[in-house]
Amino acid sequence: MKLDQLLYESYGFAEFRPGQKEVIEQVLSGRDVLALLPTGMGKSMCYQLPGKVLPGAVVIVSPLLSLMQDQVAQLKKMGEKSVIAINSFMQPDERERVWKMLDQYRFIFIAPEMLVQPYVLGKLKGIGISLLVADEAHCISQWGFDFRPDYLRISEVLPALGNPQTLALTATATDKVTDEIQRYLKLNDPFIYVHPMDRPNISYNIRKFSDEKEKLEQLLTMVKNYGGPGIIYAGTRKKAQELAGRLLEQNIQAAFYHGGMEQQDRIFVQQQFQNKELEWVCATNAFGMGVHIPDIRQVIHYQLPSSIEGYVQEIGRAGRDGNPSLATLLYVDGDERLVESLVLDDLPERHEVELIYSAGAEAKQLVDQGLVRETAYRILIYWRERISMEGTLNQMELLKKEKLRQANTIRQLVHCQGCIRMFISASFDQETPVVPHSCCSFHGIDYDLFKANSQKPTANSMSSWQERLKAILPI
């Protein structure tokens, strides 16, 4: 059967989006593949359609529970029943039922931390895996070293799974990150597809202010004048909550979202946003993956992002419907100091390295005693198994320099004296894009394109969740 026919019969689409067919053809030919497709270009189709043809299961390693749940829901909506997400939130009886039926699932979503567990590997080994997918593969580089080292272990478990062919998918990656993805996944002579990452419908807006008060006033003006749906990114959890509170004071339907919230609360905010019950979400960079809302009109960075990759990932959530969207970065002199502090915060300190290396099998107790942070423990246990203490200290120094380099790129972006679109493309080693209408604040932005809709939900017009629940449930 031809791929176009299979696409239509399986999902009802008459044609592929750019890049999809080329990637799928290479996957079905048996090659390892690394594909860089911009946000909204349909990366998931690159493993969904092959999953209809390949003889064994497709295992998708995914970084976030919310992302897994969204992908499972999307597959089920398209009629695929043999799909499951295995995660630590499953009840024991539910998990046991899944293990017994594992060979009946065609698509299996799993977090890297669970994938590397020996018991889980044993179960997966028995079902026959045709394809392992590293979704959001940039996390292997950006999160693996200093946040979630189990990303770096993915290649180590491949032999236990029968060395299945590997597909790595991401929306943004510099040449350096692309090289690291290939190296840490041990891709064998991969086919690499890189689609131009430029999104002509997004206008890039950078505004500078003399003080914090002026910046906040401008934020509120933009929210009121140009409307949403929109996402406001803050550098800290406290700031995300503070900004949501300011919007609510202005009778604007908003909520905050960050990694310190309970999982259930995060899912609730995400669902409210997707259901148009919220117009704005004020969030840390924990928000965004798995959020498939085509008509997000604004993405505003109230504080600087920590890297150019993160910045492009976040603004890429705007305008997936192809209509004009606005990406705004607000800056006050000194904002970069917060970024430099945040990017270095999670890196293990020298005393933590020395404690972990001297503790032996009792290292986990150091976390319970408050002597070593949980994140530092995960990082250091990974490196302790591989290199000497001096080697780890050198590794941490290299990571520090890389983090500061990334922060410096953001500083250069803020103070860019030319086309912002061209600066971003050059940062990813891509060709100079065509300058569209309403390109950026350097070339000029047509703000009439973003005028707010007069029919917007407000905090007073929306009923509480208790009232909505009463309306649909009998008392």
Descriptive overview:
The chain is an alpha/beta fold and 475 residues long. The chain folds into 2 domains: 3-194, Rossmann fold (3-Layer(aba) Sandwich); 202-338 and 410-469, 3-Layer(aba) Sandwich (Rossmann fold), CATH 3.40.50. 44% of the residues lie in helices and 14% in strands. It has helices at 3-11, 20-28, 45-51, 65-77, 92-100, 112-115, 118-125, 138-142, 154-157, 175-185, 212-226, 237-249, 263-274, 308-315, 335-345, 350-359, 363-368, 374-384, 389-414, 420-427, 465-472; strands spanning 33-36, 57-61, 83-86, 107-110, 129-134, 165-170, 191-194, 202-209, 230-233, 254-257, 280-283, 298-301, 325-332. Strands 3-4-2-5-6-1-7 form a 7-stranded parallel β-sheet, sandwiched between helices. A 6-stranded parallel β-sheet has the order 8-13-12-9-11-10, with helices on both faces. Residues 215-367 form the Helicase C-terminal domain. This is RecQ family ATP-dependent DNA helicase.
Task: Briefly summarize what is shown.
This is RecQ family ATP-dependent DNA helicase. The protein contains 21 helices and 13 strands. With 475 residues, the protein is of the alpha/beta class.
Task: Name the beta content range.
Answer: 5-15%
- Main sheet overview: 7 strands, parallel
Count of separate DSSP helical elements: 21
What would CATH call the architecture of the largest domain?
Answer: 3-Layer(aba) Sandwich
Q: N- to C-terminal separation?
A: 54 Å
Mean pLDDT: 86
Radius of gyration, in Å, reads 23 Å
Report the CATH superfamily of the largest domain. P-loop containing nucleotide triphosphate hydrolases
The CATH topology of the largest domain corresponds to Rossmann fold
Spatial sequence of strands, sheet with the most strands:
3-4-2-5-6-1-7
Instruction: Please identify the top-level CATH class of the largest domain.
Output: Alpha Beta
Please indicate the count of domains.
Answer: 2
Number of DSSP strands?
13
Low-confidence stretches: 454-475
What's the shape? globular
